[in-house]
Amino acid sequence: MNTLLKSVPLGDWKIYLKANYISSYADYLSKPFVDASFEYNKALTGQAVQKPRGEVMTSAVDNYLGYALGQLYVKLYFPESAKARMLELVNNLQKAFSNRIDQLNWMSDSTKQKAREKLFAITKKIGYPDKWRDYSHVTIVRNKYFENVVSAAANNFQYKLAKLGKPVDKTEWFTTPSTVTAYNNPYANEIVFPAGILQSPYFDNNADDALNYGGIGMVIGHELTHTFDDQGAQFDKDGNVKNWWTPKDYEKFKAITQQVIDLYNKFTVLDSIHVKGALTVGENTADISGVAVALDAFKMTEQGQDTTRIGGFTPIQRFFFSVARIWRVKMKDEYLRYWVNNDPHSPPMWRVNGPLMNTPAFYSAFNVKPGEMMYLDNDKQIKIW
Ligand SMILES: [Zn+2]
């Protein structure tokens, strides 16, 4: 915000603050404000029509009372059996990651030891938090939408303020249970998978392992790898910024992540807009290794060692279909352009093609030949973790 304020002429900063305040509450005000806010977003993202009222209201409840909503959500959609299967998946991925660390030829034994310690110290949060947030100070009144939002926002502010001077609460969640997301928090060395993402196409308690390891397995592998991406690698097993690498190993690690930057810089969308390799390197590293680790873990399962076809496809082929399926996204050109310039994740198609070009088993599963779009020479394929 400071840089923005500097660009506003002296004396006008109060106008800027008021404008900012109005714009952050515009969606909760009367129609002219909602419409103006939509027009602005339309220019940025290409969104053609406003969201239906039902969706707007559901998001508002999730934004402001998300842990109360989450409590209801997990009761309906997240059985204990799903939590148990998910934990088994995460544990298998962790084992697969550890095996891959053992086999790395660029890392010394002492750094490997530290990497394994960090890997097995990761806290796994699955589904929903152990204790629920308290909203008893929020006042909800029928027909008072704006006031309800202000009351919930004030409650959120107080919640954050109450943390001041207290020890870090390691049980805290930074996403609501019903959100479709997953994250790695390097400050606590934890990975978090809310119930919202533990549904199809990512995870299906009734589906075969090929689909689940290619789907949520890749996401788990991705989050585990953040522990060791360009930023995560700077934190130790307790979440403190601490160098646990030998200088030589760190140098080699940086050289491989540079290969990731160079490769993704070549990828384009909308004909000529290049993916920003440096901006997306952490996410791309997590994608490449995420697929590799998920595949190794899948091969530990009964189906992963089998060749029985389903619908004409081998288990390994179905694994790759599932990787591709979780990144199926439809977006406007405007939004894609905005994404490539601002988001640290590569656009969805490169979250599939990028990692698979660097996965040897993909070549054999689909008989990929030199000269084809997905082909990279063997010595150009990147292996990090
Ligand atoms: Zn990520």
Q: Looking at CATH, which topology of the largest domain would you report?
A: Collagenase (Catalytic Domain)
CATH homologous superfamily heading of the largest domain: Collagenase (Catalytic Domain)
For the largest sheet, list the strands in their spatial order. 1-3-2
What number is the mean pLDDT?
A: 91
- Care to count the β-strands? 5
Descriptive report:
A hairpin with a 3-residue loop joins strand 4 (268-269) and strand 5 (273-274). The protein has 385 residues and is mainly alpha-helical. The chain has 3 domains: 2-45, no CATH class; 79-129 and 171-380, Collagenase (Catalytic Domain) (3-Layer(aba) Sandwich), CATH 3.40.390; 132-166. The protein has helices at residues 2-7, 13-25, 31-45, 53-77, 80-103, 109-120, 145-161, 209-214, 216-226, 247-265, 281-299, 315-326, 333-342, 348-357, 360-366, and strands at residues 123-127, 183-185, 190-194, 268-269, 273-274. The longest helix has 25 residues, at 53-77. Helix content is 54%, strand content 4%. Strands 1-3-2 form a 3-stranded mixed beta sheet, covered by helices on one side. The two termini are 38 Å apart. The radius of gyration is 23 Å and the shape is globular. Residues 222, 226, 283, 286 line the site of zinc ion.
